[in-house]
Hints:
The protein is α/β, with parallel strands linked by helices. 39% of the residues lie in helices and 25% in strands. The chain has helices at residues 10-19, 35-46, 48-52, 66-76, 104-108; strands at residues 4-6, 25-30, 56-61, 84-89, 92-98. A five-stranded mixed sheet has the order 1-3-2-4-5, sandwiched between helices. The chain is globular and about 30 Å long.
Amino acid sequence: MKNWNPITTDQQVRAIVERSNEKTQIIFKDSVTCGISAYAKERLMNGNDLLIAKADFNYLDLLSYRSVSNFIAEELNVIHQSPQVIVLKNGEVVYRVSHHSIKAEEIEKYL
């Protein structure tokens, strides 16, 4: 997780959207007390090499930063889910996935 950028503010979310115009951005919303979220996080960590070379990886602990998670849902016009992965390119959401469907191999297709 050393290359996962923590998200703690709404301003960081805006910056991620802006950076997506230069490089694909991935947001992972993690519910740290949820078993499904832990499993999704493990799959992402195991597939990190597939993703990190092609995109920046941004991590949100949504229990600590629930208001930021709500902001993401509003700002990106996505339904809040947990765990959730959102892929951004050119300022737009190009892929979103949640729960057991989170797989690095599938996310890679949208990078």
